[in-house]
Design a protein that fits this description.
This protein has 15 helices and 25 strands. By secondary structure, it is of the alpha/beta class.
């Protein structure tokens, strides 16, 4: 290997790009179909964007929103924000106005870079939050190259925040996980040195959203640190992904279980004409990968899938099926270098082998805390260990197996959906008395969002009406595809709604459009 050795241990994460540009300036860095930027151009664009940020009054420690799909503009803007010592606030491009406004207001961002196609939601949100909107599209490229480059890199401490990743809790509003320069550097270098093992000859398929921690660390930062090429797909489509793999001789694919499922479902006559022989490693995360999907994918594509585990709060990689150790199907592997994991009971005492408890994590990958939420930080970081809310057991070899989530989170196609957020929107509907949002098993998405709703006495509303009401107010992956009306919701002795006792109708009224 040896290529990971050139990566810095400390300092500003933006130096990854600058140093790779010095070593591999003429190598392709980012590709989107016919557009290819080499490392020299990527670094130059980033320096000019840094100049633009300073002109707009961005100073070290300021927060800057970044709401872009996987397009070549994402990496240079990301590293430019870091270069001037500011903090990146990445946002899902599917967010709606109220969600965007919340992220901007909570983080206190003064600027938002948003892809032009999402301006209808981003513009009013930015106005409401008092942030300046920079629309990113083709004209934006001309503005970048008209800007005066700023080559210096802001000095930062290892513990300075680089990125705030919003993660919704089961209680109330989303919280911003503060990831430091040191967190992200360590997670990136460890991934290259021991897990994904890439160098400048590799080609990584950027199918995971770069605004998500998995895509940001394991695809973008890993590619940039190693000098590898990142070939982008803005919206995942299994046929397009396989075509890109063949066209660009992709060596590493990283995805969530739904992507593997979708590629397996591509008809053989479409697949057979594509040469995927360059593919040497697949990485899965974001949700548990069913064993039968893993086995079928490997048999079909002749490429091993290594499964890992992590969270936004852990930069994200915490454990992995290491390439140099035996792999256990269905396991999230063992902790990565420099990270400790254990399974604890209600009293935070470590449990014996085979017993189910909560995963807690300690190490260089654990966030600094939740942005401006000291109580939530103290609750999650008890005794120096980050409490994940995920339930697992450990076997006699130290391999972890996820059993369930302590939280009610639904994972739809690799995106986290927090029931509380969706329930709060349902409760705003005038006809709704009570609502409970639950995961519904789904072949295509892993889980689909379902909602059981009890109406107020004398009120009327159809499942379609409630579904549309929520759809207008939250990102499209969050709204409930399945809505059914019930006379009342099951409750425990304290009046708490018991989600585990909610039965999902086989075919609920109103049907479920795709």
């Amino acid at each position: 290997m040896g290529h990971g050795a050139a990566v810095r241990r400390g300092g500003n994460l933006a130096r990854l790009l600058i140093e790779t540009a010095q070593r591999h300036g003429d190598r392709p860095a980012v590709k989107l179909d016919d557009i290819v930027l080499n490392y020299q151009l990527l670094a130059e664009g980033s320096a000019r964007l840094a100049g633009m940020l300073v002109e707009k009054g961005v100073r070290p420690g300021d927060r800057v929103g970044l709401m872009l799909p996987n397009v070549p503009f994402f990496p240079p803007i990301y590293y430019a924000i870091l270069r001037v010592g500011a903090i990146v606030v990445p946002m899902n491009v599917l967010l709606k106005r109220r969600e965007i406004a919340y992220y901007l207001q909570d983080s206190g961002a003064k600027l938002l870079f948003a892809w032009q196609d999402f301006a209808s939601e981003a513009a009013p949100a930015a106005e409401e939050a008092g942030a300046e909107l920079v629309s990113v599209g083709l004209e934006f490229a001309q503005q970048v190259f008209a800007a005066e480059p700023r080559h210096e890199v802001a000095e930062v401490a290892d513990d300075d925040t680089a990125v705030i990743l919003y993660t919704s809790g089961t209680t109330g509003q989303p919280k911003g996980a503060e990831l430091t320069h040191a967190n992200l550097l360590a997670n990136t270098t460890t991934s290259i040195a021991t897990l994904i093992q890439v160098d400048e000859t590799d080609v990584i398929l950027g199918a995971l959203p770069l605004f998500h921690s998995f895509g940001q660390t394991c695809a973008m930062n890993v590619a940039v640190a190693a000098g590898a090429m990142l070939t982008l797909i803005p919206r995942f489509d299994p046929v397009k992904a396989l075509e890109i793999m063949a066209r660009d001789k992709v060596t590493v694919f990283e995805g969530v279980p739904t992507m593997y499922n979708a590629m397996l479902a591509v008809p053989e006559e479409v697949r057979s004409g594509l040469d995927l022989s360059a593919l040497r490693l697949c990485v899965s995360g974001g949700a548990a990968l069913p064993g039968e999907v893993l086995n079928a994918f490997e048999a079909t594509f002749g490429c091993a899938i290594l499964e890992g585990y992590g969270l936004s709060e852990t930069s994200p990689v915490a454990s992995f099926n290491h390439p140099d150790r035996p792999r256990k199907v269905g396991s999230i592997g063992t902790p990565i270098r420099g990270v400790e994991m254990k399974v604890v009971g209600e009293d935070d005492e470590e449990l014996p082998v085979g017993e189910v408890g909560e995963i807690v994590i300690r190490g260089h990958n654990v966030m600094k805390g939740y942005w401006r939420k000291p109580e939530a930080t103290a609750e999650a970081m008890r005794d120096g260990w980050f409490h994940t809310g995920d339930l697992a057991r450990v076997d006699e070899d130290g391999y972890f197996f996820i059993v369930d989530r302590k939280k009610d989170m639904i994972i739809r196609g690799g995106y986290n959906v927090y029931p509380r957020e969706v329930e709060e929107v349902l409760y705003e509907h005038p006809a709704v008395a009570e609502a409970a949002v639950v995961g519904v098993p789904d072949r295509e998405w892993g889980e689909e969002v379902g909602a059981a709703v009890a109406l107020k006495a004398g009120a009327t509303a159809t499942p379609e009406e409630l579904r549309e009401y929520v759809k207008e107010r939250v990102a499209s992956y969050k709204y409930p595809r399945h809505v059914w009306i019930v006379p009342e919701l099951p409750k425990g002795p304290t009046g708490k709604i018991l989600k585990r006792e909610i039965t999902v109708p086989v075919s609920e009224p109103g049907g479920a459009p795709s």
